[in-house]
Amino acid sequence: MLERIRGGLVVSCQALEDEPLHSPYIMSRMAAAAERGGAAGIRANSREDILAIRGATALPVVGIVKRDYPGSEVFITATRRELEELLTTGCEMIALDATDRPRPGGETLEALVAYCRRRSPGVQLMADVSSLEEAAEAERLGFDCVSATLYGYTPATRGRHLYDDDFGFLRRLVAQCGIPVVAEGNVLTPDMYRRCLAAGAHAVVVGGAITRPQLIVERFLQA
């Protein structure tokens, strides 16, 4: 999958249960529209949505399952349960929260990576990180790529944005990592997409600016 998305745009087609577009069918049509527009891949949440998307497009999919667990802030592919669900979809890549926060049930990131490698060696793994230290650990654990997804969404980074300091965090990730770095999180405009690629990103994931109309409307009104 990494070769297929190199230098391209991955469109995140997600709608949570409390959002107006929550529906596997609607997400599949979003993905089909993204494919028609020239997207290189799709990032999608939940087994149901991914299966619907795979029936509607030929694009490779980064799969996640978002699920809240009491006592843990980790909710992107947090446990073995989510991995098992994703492995039934045939998605080409699975993204996991790779922050250093405690996982539900005491599971460890290292154990989840090892489990996935045993169960399905052909599936690539993306590490959603918020810091350079987490990226280094993800590389040590054998992830295929890292993504800046959670920068700004952890207690240590809250209030920060990927575009701060001309994408300074992204540039530091690219300089440090020996594996591909994907830009994701608050990429709001075509110019930001271009700047992420210029900063050395292997690919760029854009979600809210394309597929979450309620957020798009809010940005217009705030302006």
Radius of gyration: 16 Å
- How many H/I helical runs? 10
- Structural domain count: 1
| Sheet with the most strands, sense and barrel status | 8 strands, parallel, barrel
Tell me about this structure.
The protein is α/β, with parallel strands linked by helices. The chain has a single domain (about 1-220), classed as Alpha-Beta Barrel (TIM Barrel), CATH 3.20.20.70. It is about 40% helix and about 15% strand. The chain is built from 10 helices and 8 strands. It has helices at about 1-5, 25-35, 45-55, 80-85, 110-120, 130-140, 165-175, 190-200, 210, 215-220; strands spanning about 10-15, 40-45, 60-65, 95, 125-130, 145, 180-185, 205. It has an 8-stranded parallel barrel with strand order 1-2-3-4-5-6-7-8, surrounded by 6 helices. Helix 2 (about 25-35) crosses helix 3 (about 45-55). The radius of gyration is 16 Å and the shape is globular. The termini are far apart.
